Please model this.
Amino acid sequence: MRRVEGEIMDSFLVCGGMGFIGKEVCKELKRRGHSVYIYDQKISNYEVAWFDGKEVSVDLGFKFWWEVFEVIDVVVSFISVPRIAYCERHKDEAFRSNVLENVKIIDKCIEYDKPFVFASSLEVVSNGRSYYKHTKYIIEYLLNFLHDKYIVIRYSHVFGKDDPYEDRIITKFLNGKFEVYNNPFKKFYFTYLPDVVKRTVDIILNNTWNGEVYDIISQEPLTLDYIITEIFKQDSYTVIHKPELKDFESTGVGLLDGKDIIVRGLEEVIKNGKISVD
Model:
């Protein structure tokens, strides 16, 4: 097996590349001219596939999934059971997915000397206690000792169209399920999927693989009360000014303009008919 003919840029293996964030990162990498392979349980139970920008092809001639490491340059892993509540109810599944699958991939990265990008969560540094948080922490901890070439990207409350996770706070809000406002003054760092994807790819393509940790967060946390009172009272959902995203600094923090992200996110969802506003 060799690189796909005509591809001259870096080649990526995106593990969990059929998921909510992973599939958009695959599209963005492809849009920027890179070769993209996908390793995901949704593809014939973890069969490696080639991504052409729209469709996946699985007849690649690999006898074993790890043979793809011979033709790729960087590994990115989004493999995870992403929902905190689900992890609490299904700890065995969460451990297998969030920990064991990633350890297996890291082991191959070490064997083939490939850089590894781990998609983590800001839950790791939160004050909360959850099984989900601990599974993410385990991988961050192990990477610090096991692998020389890696980075960690932490995400927080990512939302956007076609979000499959109905129990997310922002998804419930966008679908009009207002029972989530039991605590309207709790603050969240909401982040909008298209901005998160762009920032993720920027980080992946511009780093030194020295164990940097990047927290992709909005500039300020927002309350659900703010979203209701400040955004839904507007007569128009047109974005008045184009948000300017700050470049991520060497400190590893990629800031996004939180208020504008919410406005643009709501505008997109409303246009797509996901929610009606009187």
The chain is about 35% helix and 20% strand. The longest helix spans residues 91-112. The longest strand covers residues 35-40. The CA atoms of residues 49 and 55 lie 10 Å apart.
